[in-house]
Amino acid sequence: MQALSLHRHFFTALLSAVLTINAYAGASRSPSANNSGKPVIEPSSPTYGGFTADKLQAAVDKAYATFNALDEGKNADYIPILTETLSNLFGVVIVTPDGKTFCAGDVDYKFSIQSISKPFTAALVMKETSPQELQEKIGMEPTGLPFNSKMALELYEARSVNPLVNAGAIAAVSMINADSEDKRWYKVRQNLNDFAGTELRLMEKVFKSEYDTSWSNRGMANLLYNYGRLYCKPEEALRVYTKQCALGVSAKDLGMMGATLANGGKNPITGKQVLPKAHVPELLAIMATAGFYDESGIWMAEAGLPAKTGVGGGIVAVVPGKFAIAAFSPRLNPAGNSIKSMKAIRQISGELGLGVFGANPE
Ligand code: GLN
User: Fold this and answer.
1) How far apart (Å, rounded) are the C-alpha atoms in residues 156 and 304?
2) Residue with CA nearest ligand 1 atom 6
């Protein structure tokens, strides 16, 4: 009897020791002590890029609340149908490399991706050819000029200059390896779907509205072809480019596309390696220097994050290795950048100290 009770005592002590060790292993850093002197075990909460879920949600909520009432700026109107989007829509989202989303506002509303498609198609060109070929056939320098600048074509020997302005983006589409327009469009679209981890639908009315009024882009495509800097027929490149700009995305989709880049080129949901990891820094560098066209310098100084804007009102910013921040609001400033989206992302970056060169001021 006595032997049995000793045994029981021994096993109870052992079990309690094991439980204590396990509890410590799961505790967040150092357990504190309560009045009885016994350690209080705090359950560890997962972190994303060093931030708790609560912290990220609070930053998103705060950005939404701070800027929601702003009514500066107006919808893009040179693409007639974009004037019809409700100007006061606003959404902010953070997407982590494991696909978690922290949202506020209109994050599921579909709008046209516009120029935010450009870096992702440049990624496809890098993958199919090489960053060197992209550099030689298009260029990698910022223009310091508006996204639709015709002057840049005459000013720079490279002509198209970089893949994030219209001329370079039309040239990027023309560099895709395809022997028909259908195949070119299929590959461009499939690549954007892969980044988003979902099928993006063409907003037919947006495509038609822009294509029917594309005199400026058509002019640039023809000039590039004339200079030997377009690698398929101009109208084909223009049509596929205009279609890629008319793909419908939500702020969440944009966040997922950015999170793919934050995750070394691998989509958080599908696990597909969409862009080789080695090319991600080169792409982010182009976004950092040219993502906001003639406002790229100010953006980097204030937000410190590689990002891309579009005249549909979207912006996606990448915090390398950590997560992506996306926002949507149709009201634009004169450079064609969404005012509320810029402010929201800049505030989150400042508050959490996310700038790639060090924390930017709040
Ligand atoms: N499709 C638009 C254009 O070519 C894209 C411009 C933008 O979003 N900045 O003008």
Assistant:
1) 27
2) 115
Bridge partner residues of 216 (DSSP) = none
- Ligand 1, atom 2: nearest CA belongs to which residue? 114
Nearest Cα residue to atom 4 of ligand 1: 166
How does pLDDT run across 83-132, given as a tens digit for each residue?
Answer: 999 999 999 999 999 999 999 999 999 999 999 999 999 999 999 999 99
**Domain spans in the chain, listed from the N-terminal domain onward:** 2-44, 49-140+191-213+245-352
Residue 156 CB neighbours (<10 A): 17
pTM for the complete prediction?
0.88
CATH superfamily placement of domain 49-140+191-213+245-352? DD-peptidase/beta-lactamase superfamily (3.40.710.10)
CA of 350 relative to ligand 1 center, distance in Å = 28
Ligand 1 centroid to Cα of residue 166, in Å, is 7
SS3 of residue 45 by DSSP: coil
Q: How many CA atoms, within 13 angstroms, populate the side-chain half-sphere of residue 199?
A: 3
Q: Which residues of the chain have pLDDT under 70?
A: 1-43
Can you tell me whether residue 232 is helix, strand or coil?
coil
User: Mind listing the pLDDT tens digit for each residue in 305-321?
Assistant: 999 999 999 999 999 99
